[in-house]
Amino acid sequence: MGDIECERVFLIEHFPEDISKHKSILIQIGDFTPANDFNILKIRGKGDDYELIKKEFVSETERREFCIPLTKQEFELLYPVTIRKHKKKRIFYPLGKDTCEIDVYLDDMLGYVRAEIEFDNLDDMRNFIIPEWFGDEITKVNHSIHENLGAINLNTMISRFKENNIHFTPVYL
Predict the structure, then answer these.
(1) Residue 49's closest CA among 23, 64, 67, 22?
(2) SS3 for the chain, per residue?
(3) What angle do CA 63, 65, 66 make, to 5 degrees?
(4) Does residue 168 lie in a domain region?
(5) Could you list the residue range(s) of the whole structural domain that residue 150 is in?
(6) Is residue 170 part of a domain?
(7) What is the pTM of this model?
(8) Does residue 45 or residue 55 have the better pLDDT?
(9) Is the residue at 69 inside a domain?
């Protein structure tokens, strides 16, 4: 069985003043399979790294994942024919000994920003002090909120947060 992740996910109320000083990369994801399929086939460009990803259903809590590296040319050939696609800028922001990954969504999702922090252990996760620039925590609804990502827009996302009684205000860099 794979590693267990300890993570929390938050909306962002506003960016910290020094956000532009930190490393970022462009992430592009394209899906070949319908949303919420048990088996998934997608491509991802993450900075200068490109890959084809296949996830096969094993059980409700497990999937087997296979990754095949792609060249930039192969990625550029395949990305346009995916059925859903989205782009985001990921900013790596230090928070003490942890790194916060801030995802700034682009195109039809412009204004949607979320932060994810992965912890070394459960104690660190429980004792995390939430920065004042973070908004509501969305850890428990993160996967359902992102259903069909790449085929929805910011207005759909706003409606989903409203349905879950989560305060959401668009944020722009």
Answers:
(1) 67
(2) CCCCCEEEEEEECCCCCCHHHCCEEEEEEEECCCCCCCCEEEEEEECCEEEEEEEEEEECCEEEEEEEEECHHHHHHHHHHCCEEEEEEEEEEEECCEEEEEEEECHHHCCCEEEEEEECCHHHHHCCCCCCCEEEECHHHHHHHCCCCCCCCHHHHHHHHHHCCCCCCCCCC
(3) 155
(4) no
(5) 6-163
(6) no
(7) 0.86
(8) 45
(9) yes
Length of the chain counted residue by residue: 173
User: In the block, which residue shows the tokens 């992740």?
Assistant: 5
Establish how many alpha carbons lie within 13 A of residue 58's alpha carbon, considering only the half-sphere containing its beta carbon.
Answer: 9
Per-residue pLDDT tens digits for 106-118:
999 999 999 999 8
Q: Is residue 169 part of a domain?
A: no
What CATH number did the domain enclosing 95 receive?
Answer: 2.40.320.10
- In angstroms, the CA 155 to CA 166 distance is 14
**CA of residue 114 relative to chain centroid, distance:** 8
Percentage of the chain beyond pLDDT 90 is 69
> Which residues make beta-bridge pairs with 137?
10
